[in-house]
Design a protein that fits this description.
By secondary structure, this protein is of the alpha+beta class. The protein is built from twelve helices and 29 strands.
């Protein structure tokens, strides 16, 4: 981890090694911006399609190599520009993009090899076309050198002063940073255009490649595949081939359970009132809803695709979720038309499967899976029905009486009621789909006979349940205290997008008076539990007095800290006072009786708080002692 000057609005560049997990979290959060920077700096003569794929490749390869890096206490930060992980990644992206922009002797540019990954076959991807202003700016940028384009982008997109631009360019290997800045002056400043879809390689259009040539290649490939299939079939015949299968039936034998799983007439359908007398409130008591629950052709098609999805079906699954067919007839939860698609949702006791196809055909069908084993109560109260235009619609449980949208970053605001029609909510903004800076975080508020709770969309089928409080005795986040606890730290949820998160708890474990007397800082630990069990994440966040948002200063993956098994946590940060003095600040949970720092900085103190003078960029390892004599190490 790395230290930064928090008194500056823009920290020019990374000054030391960055922990790979911190860099990974920054990459996930700022990926669209890093790809946009790479796209703008890459030479335009690569072509728009090649620039798109290369920009994504450069951003994805920006992570540091190796898992173990020296631990560095990060400085408190409140914006993207002060994030050491982002500064490190930006420098790496610029360095590799500038290297790609340099003329190569003996190898003309058009013959450069494409990046190994990512690759897209059968489609040409390119950003949406802009207007005349965007075209004019792109042409002007094409006349600049790579360093000059980088200087223009850092000025306009990152809004950095020239002194910081010079420092970043020099760190990225530019020999004449001053000349690059001077050359960039030749293009009028138009920062708003840099944010347009014309220069957004994450919002793309798709067109087919050369269809005639593809058809010829496809015929040759099919002939080869047919020959290979014949040979494989001969080898795999019963009585030889791969070896004996014991008591198993021959490969061509019929399986009654597998056949029943493909029969729409065998689907489990729960009565609408079953949940009222059920012992548990989970997905097994959801009724079948939607106007197409009687469409046997649609349901047969869905079951067939689930059992053997074709090559054109887009299949996705949360981490740790299997995508194979159901073991028996699944339960039908919904079948109907939503926006411009036909949607079917099924449940097989372990997984939720959502099938979606266009209203006017089946080409472009999608099949999504999510684990829900053991889900009950709040975790079984809503499912994502559809996403469109950066909005999301939910299908809610039959016991949910009211739904509302709430911005958790504005805890004193009133929740906005949402219309509920046959269990389907009106669309609400999804924080998982929102581009740009995090200025709000809209969640779903669900109310039933037992109270209200909050869930948030993180890009998967099942929304994430939000709680607050000490691990092991968490409360719902929908109350006034819970909203105030989550408000400064909601943006940290972005790091858990598409990670199979089940629930996230926020625990305000310490408050620390600042050594210069300017107020009291807040320490919060958030812990994300997953459906698969592994991959849990604990984040330590720090917020100075008056700060609108907290900053992630430490992270632990697959550690018991901050959870019910080990409700303790210890983390530290380098903080710069208004007078320019640097301090090591560290805080542990209430049971911490002493804290000591070793390594590049040595300090110790009694109790759960530690404040010591430090030098900029100091590195230290933290160790705490609990009341029972056990030692705990700081999150890194």
């Amino acid at each position: 981890m790395q230290s930064q000057d928090v008194a500056q609005r823009h920290a020019p560049a990374a000054t030391g090694p960055v922990d790979v997990e911190q860099a990974e979290a920054s990459l996930v959060e700022h990926y669209p911006r890093l790809v946009r920077i790479a796209y703008l700096v890459l030479p335009p003569d690569l072509g728009r399609r090649r620039r798109v794929l290369t920009a994504h490749a450069l951003a994805q390869r920006a992570l540091p190599r190796g898992r173990k890096q020296p631990s560095v206490l990060p400085a408190q930060a409140s914006a993207r520009e002060d994030d050491p992980g982002y500064a490190y990644l930006r420098e790496r992206v610029l360095r590799t993009a500038l290297k790609a922009a340099r003329p190569r002797t003996g190898l003309p540019r058009p013959s450069r090899l494409p990046p190994l990954l990512p690759q897209v076959w059968g489609l040409r991807l390119f950003p949406h076309s802009g207007g005349a202003d965007e075209l004019s700016l792109d042409q002007r940028l094409s006349t600049l050198s790579g360093p000059a384009r980088a200087a223009y982008v850092l000025r306009g997109l990152e809004k950095l002063p020239d002194a910081d631009v010079r420092t970043i360019l020099e760190a990225a290997g530019v020999d004449d940073a001053g000349g690059a800045l001077a050359a960039a002056n030749g293009v009028p400043a138009q920062p708003a255009l840099l944010f347009s879809p014309e220069f957004d390689p994450c919002s793309l259009q798709a067109r087919p490649t050369d269809l005639v040539r593809r058809r010829r290649h496809t015929k040759a490939a099919l002939a080869a595949a047919a020959a290979l299939a014949v040979c494989g079939a001969l080898v795999a015949l019963p009585g030889g081939g791969w070896g004996p299968d014991g008591a198993a039936a021959p490969p061509y034998a019929e399986n009654p359970a597998a056949e029943a799983a493909l029969d729409p007439g065998e689907l489990t359908r729960v009565p609408a009132s079953a949940w009222e007398s059920a012992a548990r409130t989970d997905f097994s008591v959801w009724p079948a809803r939607g106007p197409l629950t009687g469409d046997r052709a649609l349901l047969r098609r869905v079951l067939a695709v689930w059992a053997r999805p074709g090559g054109t079906v887009r299949v996705s699954a949360t981490p740790g979720t299997q995508t194979g067919g159901p073991a028996g007839p699944p339960q039908l939860l919904y079948a109907g038309e939503v926006d411009n698609a036909r949607v079917v949702i099924l449940y097989d006791s372990l997984r939720i499967a959502r099938y979606a196809e266009p209203k006017n055909g089946t080409r472009g069908a999608a099949l999504d899976f999510a684990r829900v084993d053991g889900a009950t109560g709040a975790e079984a109260s809503a499912l994502v029905l559809n996403r469109s235009d950066r909005n999301v619609r939910y299908l809610v449980a039959p016991w949910v009486r009211k739904v509302a949208a709430r911005d958790v970053m504005k805890p004193d605001s009133v929740a906005t009621p949402l219309t509920l029609t046959d269990g389907i909510t009106a669309p609400l903004a999804s924080p998982a789909l929102r581009p740009g800076a995090c200025t709000s975080w809209t969640v779903l508020q669900l109310a039933d006979a037992s109270g209200s709770r909050l869930s948030t969309d993180l890009g998967e089928l099942v929304p994430v349940h939000l709680t607050v409080g000490h691990p092991g005795s968490m409360d719902e986040a929908s109350g006034a205290q819970g909203l105030r606890a989550w408000a400064p730290f909601a943006c940290s949820l972005a790091a858990g997008r598409t990670a199979g998160i089940r629930s996230v708890n926020a625990w305000a474990y310490a408050q620390q008076p600042l050594p210069d007397g300017s107020g009291v800082a807040d320490w919060v630990c958030t812990r994300a539990e997953t459906w698969r069990g592994g991959g849990t994440t604990a984040l330590a966040l720090f917020r100075t007095p008056g700060g609108r948002a907290g900053t992630v200063v430490a992270k632990g993956t697959d550690v018991p800290a901050c959870g019910p098994r080990d409700p303790h946590v210890l983390a530290g940060v380098l903080w710069k006072s208004g007078a320019g003095n640097w301090y090591l600040l560290a805080a542990g949970s209430r049971e911490t009786t002493s804290i000591r720092a070793t390594g590049g900085l040595t300090a110790s103190g009694q109790g759960p708080l530690l404040a010591a003078r430090a030098e900029k960029g100091a590195r230290a390892d933290l160790m705490g002692t609990l009341a029972d004599g056990r030692n705990i190490s700081g999150l890194r």
